[in-house]
Write a structure and sequence with these properties.
By secondary structure, the protein is of the alpha/beta class. It has three domains: 67 residues, no CATH class; 207 residues, 2-Layer Sandwich (Endonuclease, Chain A); 165 residues, Endonuclease, Chain A (2-Layer Sandwich), CATH 3.30.870. It is built from 19 helices and 18 strands. Helix 6 runs antiparallel to helix 12.
Length: 494
Amino acid sequence: MSVTETIWNLLVAGYDFIMDNLLIINILLSLVIVFFQRRSPQTVWTWLLLLYFIPILGFLLYLVIGQDFHKSRMFKAKEIEGELKYAVRRQEETIYRKQLRLANPEMARFKDLILYNLEAGEAVLTDNNEVRIYTDGKEKFRALIEEMKQAKRYIHLQYYIIRNDELWREIEKVLLQKAKEGVEVRVLFDSMGCRTMHNKDWERLERAGIQVAEFFPALLGQLQLRVNYRNHRKIVVIDGRIGFVGGFNIGREYLGLDTKKFGYWRDTHLCIEGAAVTSLAVRFVLDWNYAAKENLFLEDRLFEIPDYVRHGRDPVQIISSGPDSQTKTIHDNYLRLIHSAKDHVYIQTPYFIPDESIFDALKIASRSGVDVRIMVPCKPDHPFVYWATYSYLGDMVAAGAKCYVYNNGFLHAKTLSVDGMVACVGTANMDIRSFGLNFEVNAVIYSERTVQRLERAFENDMTKCTHVTRKIYDQRGLVIRTKEQFSRLLSPLL
């Protein structure tokens, strides 16, 4: 008997065994899903339903996108390092809380949120920031490149997606030149988001003296089997003086050049000058230390307070969340801001798949007379997520919220603002994945002038939207209703 025949016979025997014992195997796999780790009942039942309809294959999908097997071990080092970094500062923060003063007395109702972020998220409130808002990709990257050209000491660049196209080549050119001038340049990228890049692209940077680190590398070369725990943050810190954070990644579509698929790309990105940049610098270093197996906290010069040019007045807290944290800081900020709203809540998000607490908070706010407005894109970049979003949007319309579909391209902004006073802006979507499975970073801005600029941008976007009324929503066809129901059923897995 040949080797080929032997292998074939083994495969046939294995198949027959699985088919003969499919019920028992499925029960055993179900027990793994139920008892191996603690999850919400909704998520568990969704996985069990998937396993019922797609035996064996459903469990393989669970291993790829649903398992938490190594979560505690993977990020233990990150958590410990963060604790070590902030242990010395906790006493200082306790004193700082007692001295907290806000310029606007109305802002006092957000004091509990400030204290929560300080305690749970170790996010120091800084009040000397100048915040610039970018909603257009060309303007944002033009500003980023100009600021990088001014770098004297270091450039720390972290993005979820980097594509090897004309935009990256322009940025790379600046990075290579600054490295040649003696500026320390570090590039941190996520393995999943940058899967279209090749090793030679990163090696080219390393040969020029640029340090490169990969977050959560693929198991087998370019083969990506781990969908969870992606580093979705977009952070750039230049000399500890200027920081960028927001929704834009690096790629031609973010300049609105991918006209066939997305068209114009509407996003929101912040450029911050002030003490809040130090918080962004710490956040980058924590991620870098984990990915590069270094300890940049030993480099005191990376955290020296520079001289600021603009001398801003915006109070800002930099908050982050991820599977390495016991608290869902960004989620809790969204929830607290919604509960605190007296007049209005404005939300822009490409994915609207809220968990039960935020979903209920929004419906209660709307039914209590708060003007709740939610804006989502008119086209999907992930079909299942898009139809699940539209399903939740229908429930919000029924609750009295004003829901809008952005028609001028693709809306990728991640913003939540309340009463023209406080806003939470950054990388986190309004979905379950951003709340618990991805590493995210947001800026909480306690400044009327800056928040009102964000809200004016929202109101301008409304002129390019379709208002989804109850009548319009009820007119959708059977095919769309089916897509919605199926996608919503899978929403805990998305």
